[in-house]
Amino acid sequence: MPTVTHTNEVTISFLSRSANEGFARTAVACFAAQLDPTLDEIGDVKTAVSEAVTNAIVHGYPNELGKITLRVRLLPDRTLEITVRDWGVGIPDVDKARTPLYTTGNEERSGMGFTIMESFMDHLKVRSKEGKGTTLVMRKRFSPRAGAAM
Ligand SMILES: Nc1ncnc2c1ncn2[C@@H]1O[C@H](COP(=O)(O)OP(=O)(O)OP(=O)(O)O)[C@@H](O)[C@H]1O
Ligand SMILES: [Mg+2]
What we know:
The model has no long low-confidence stretch (mean pLDDT 95). The two termini are 24 Å apart. The protein has one domain (8-141): Heat Shock Protein 90. The protein has helices at 19-32, 39-60, 94-97, 113-120; strands at residues 8-15, 67-75, 79-86, 123-129, 133-141. It is of the alpha+beta class. The radius of gyration is 15 Å and the shape is globular. The structure holds adenosine-5'-triphosphate (ATP) and magnesium ion.
């Protein structure tokens, strides 16, 4: 068995229905509770997950229902890693998509999702291939807490 360097991990798979955005956000908050986070930290993570999962739902699968996976891992040094993956249309130019205010969406979208994820998390990596899908990895290190299990 390969060596496991992280201390905990869950994976959830769901359909690209908008109802599941709230589910994903709350599931990550519940998992992160073991870090005894501050309200600010949990708020930041919930916002970032909300943006990432909304993108997978509305942009990844614009015309069909598809599968989305959400993996949450606890890494050393109180670092939470969140991976959101879809097998949808993909992003032709990731650098351009990450530019603030850039959107291919309708008037409801402001093009700020990636910028919000970047500002609320410590690290954001986006891998995408047109026609194959998109994988987004975000990390955030939580502040030390007296009495926390880790
Ligand atoms: N999972 C994805 N699959 C395909 N395209 C995506 C995906 N995520 C983002 N994109 C593309 O990147 C663009 C920028 O995303 P971003 O979240 O920053 O803004 P937005 O979703 O358009 O607007 P907002 O998030 O402010 O509502 C999107 O308009 C879309 O073209
Ligand atoms: Mg968005």
